[in-house]
Amino acid sequence: MDAPALWQRYQDWLYYHQGLDFYLDVSRMRFDHAFVEAMRPKFEKAFQDMEALERGAIANPDENRMVGHYWLRDPDIAPTPELRQDILTVLEKIESFTTKVHSGDIHPPGSSKFTDILSIGIGGSALGPEFVADALAPNVPPLAIHFIDNTDPAGIDATIAKLQDRLANTLVLIISKSGGTPETRNGMIEAKKAYESQKLDFAAHAVAITGEDSNLEQLAKSEGWLATFPMYDWVGGRTSEMSAVGLLPAALQGIDIRQMLAGAKEMDSATRIHNLHENPAALLALSWYFSGNGQGEKDMVVLPYKDSLLLFSRYLQQLVMESLGKEKDLDGNTVHQGIAVYGNKGSTDQHAYVQQLREGVPNFFVTFIEVLRDREGHSPQVEAGVTSGDYLSGLLQGTRKALYDNQRDSITVTIPQVNPRTVGALIALYDRAVGLYASLVNINAYHQPGVEAGKKAASAILDLQKRVIQVLQDQGEPMSLSQLAQKAGATDQIEAIYKILRHLHTNQRGVVLEGKLGEPSSLKVSAV
Ligand SMILES: O=P(O)(O)OC[C@H]1O[C@H](O)[C@H](O)[C@@H](O)[C@@H]1O
């Protein structure tokens, strides 16, 4: 396509939302008129599916649940007055709790104010709060946030060490919808021990955000924690940023959550429109479908050209991959759907892997996220008439062109600046694009059956570890791995036993391995 034709295509497809000052450009996705026409009936169905979902249909049939994250931004569209009231009540509770924490009305036992937050959660109970904190927390927030989002002991130590001197003034948020995720429970137990080691009352510092009647809620109530906030079964973890999961930590950091909700609500209205051309989420879903042939054949590389949006790619990775990565479609056919998502930020990544994007395997499309406002205040010149921000902007345009010239497609999302409204709008845009795309490819975007397999296998390994330790303790003599496996009744799991023992041995957990470590059959194992 020559330059005038490309400029015309750009103008024909440019989407602009006046209220949000938001642009979407899909002109560098090479779909043609025939493709768009062929997709129209599929989109009509997708629009209707989304309408039914918003009206309260069981859009997550496998878990027999409604899908209501859109109601959080506009409680008036909740399907019943009770649900509407629940949403409003929680929002008021978040705001009044936050006001009291900021004023010192709610304070830790030994001092006048909380200064820090330790947020413990994983997956959808971490990625949204982490992204929003990075994107929006003021430089000097009323409370500074820290995260434990794994069961890595060294990672837990590093976070607790940073907080050691301020633990007495740290508010701990335990976030888990199910209230039973082991990584989160482990983080909580370790945090509790850190409090106890300083003779601090953990309960007086702890807040739970969790589903009704979960183990975590029961624990919080029985121990008299500072507060609990509910999570509803109709909000999925990966779409929970606008529930208490995301709003409470954001509000405590001084982020304007009403603006986040307003931006999301505005984008929700814009993405409800039954018209491909006028609906930015539909344009995204159309582009994804085109690029990957409706089968995820190409990866989505997300490149925000703004440091504060770095974690957006990681946030989207869960939203897109956990929602769309499914073995079966809604009719039970095996389809192995999904779109792989990765990315960090531009221009930094241009000095890392963009070489491959330009010249290597053409198995991706890029989404550039452009932010028009460079910074607050004046920019110095780095060359005559040129600022650092001009460079960032030029590098984005240059990469987009260099990729397009080499048959690599891209989408560009443009926002005026990073603020609570635009971040809310971005989250809402992708919520809807994922929902529409799921309808196009006929899958349930709101469950995650595949995650269970790894959890079950991990719990079987921990059971095996207990059995193996018991056998070792009962047995006085050193044994070979195969003898041990036989006595534990697990001859088919000798490799797992070897790995368990190697880990216990390294951590001096009462197991000694003798022999050549790289030759498992030479090893003798005993308890000490
Ligand atoms: O909030 P939780 O119940 O602790 O769940 C935390 C995360 O873990 C699960 O395994 C799911 O795959 C995620 O969708 C979820 O967000």
Provide structural commentary:
Helix 16 crosses helix 18. Helix 12 (310-324) links the parallel strand 8 and strand 9. A six-stranded mixed β-sheet has the order 1-2-13-10-8-9, with helices on both faces. The protein has 528 residues and is of the alpha/beta class. The chain folds into three domains: 3-59 and 261-445, Glucose-6-phosphate isomerase like protein, domain 1 (Rossmann fold), CATH 3.40.50; 69-255, Rossmann fold (3-Layer(aba) Sandwich), CATH 3.40.50; 450-527, Winged helix-like DNA-binding domain superfamily/Winged helix DNA-binding domain (Arc Repressor Mutant, subunit A, Orthogonal Bundle). The chain is built from 18 helices and 16 strands. It binds 6-O-phosphono-alpha-D-glucopyranose (G6P).
Topology:
Elements: H1 3-13, E1 15-17, E2 22-25, H2 33-54, H3 69-73, H4 81-103, E3 116-120, H5 127-136, E4 144-148, H6 153-163, E5 170-176, H7 182-197, E6 206-211, H8 215-223, E7 227-231, H9 244-252, H10 257-270, H11 280-292, E8 299-304, H12 310-324, E9 341-342, H13 354-359, E10 364-371, E11 381-383, E12 386-387, H14 388-405, E13 410-415, H15 420-440, H16 449-474, E14 479-480, H17 481-487, H18 494-506, E15 511-514, E16 524-527
Parallel strand pairs: 3-4, 3-5, 5-6, 6-7, 8-9, 8-10, 10-13
Antiparallel strand pairs: 1-2, 2-13, 11-12, 14-16, 15-16
Bound molecules: 6-O-phosphono-alpha-D-glucopyranose.
6-O-phosphono-alpha-D-glucopyranose binds next to loops.
Classify the beta-strand content into a percent band.
5-15%
Going across the biggest sheet, name each strand in turn. Answer: 1-2-13-10-8-9
> What is the overall pLDDT average?
97
- Please tell me how large the radius of gyration is: 26 Å
